[in-house]
Design a protein that fits this description.
By secondary structure, the protein is of the alpha+beta class. The protein has one domain: Alpha-Beta Complex (Nucleoside Triphosphate Pyrophosphohydrolase). Strands 1, 2, 3, 4, 5, 6, 7 and 8 form an 8-stranded mixed sheet that branches. The relative contact order is 0.21.
């Protein structure tokens, strides 16, 4: 799978926004672990601690704001370590996906990270209530994704049913593009998908 992801990401034309339009840059790590106890490649998903003011209780990928002087890859690796205690290096980065703008004022750059062998996860309780390993095969469920029209927007929202919960955008949009581009080799864009109304407030 690692070789397939590298091949697919290598030929994908990533879209970066030259003008973020006032959005703050952020990065997330789509972290694939090939030493999952179930014997299948899995990605790491977190549930934010309810204590967080803006994102409390939400399902998310490890990530956060890009600090001055950082690349998006450096940010993703730093946040992976800060949130889950997982150390990864530049050699573990396989590529990136499109920027995704959020209702909370961020422009998220997804970074795909591949970790070999057994990975010990130590969630930081200040940011993460729980962390889960989700088999990549779950992204190919026949009932996924859920695309739903809403009255509040001319863009549909996207949701992904996963074993732990139904996950909304931005996480759902980012994981869906990962599945489409990195795993299936399709040039699929996702920035037209909306977030649920509760994320607007």
């Amino acid at each position: 799978m690692r070789a397939k992801i590298v091949e697919h990401l290598g030929r994908f034309e990533v879209r970066r926004r030259a003008d973020p339009g006032g959005l703050r840059h952020a990065a997330v790590a789509i972290t694939i672990v090939d030493g999952d106890p179930a014997g299948e490649p899995a990605f790491l998903l977190t549930r934010r601690t309810p204590k967080l003011r803006a994102h409390g209780g939400q399902w998310a990928l490890p990530g956060g704001r890009v600090d001055p002087g950082e690349t998006i890859e450096q940010t993703a690796l730093r946040e992976l370590h800060e949130e889950l205690g997982v150390l990864a290096g530049a050699d573990d980065v396989l590529g990136t996906l499109d920027d995704y703008p959020t209702r909370s004022g961020y422009l998220i750059a997804p970074v795909v990270v591949w970790l070999r062998g057994v990975v010990d996860i130590a969630p930081n309780p200040a940011e993460v209530a729980a962390a889960y390993r989700i088999r990549c095969a779950e992204l190919f469920r026949p009932d996924s994704p859920e695309i739903v029209a809403i009255e509040e927007s001319d863009r549909p929202i996207i949701r992904l049913p996963l074993p732990v919960a139904t996950v909304n955008a931005p996480t759902a949009a980012i994981l869906y593009q990962f599945k489409e581009v990195a795993l299936a080799g399709r040039d699929t864009r996702v920035d037209h998908y909306e977030q649920p109304v509760f994320a607007w407030r």
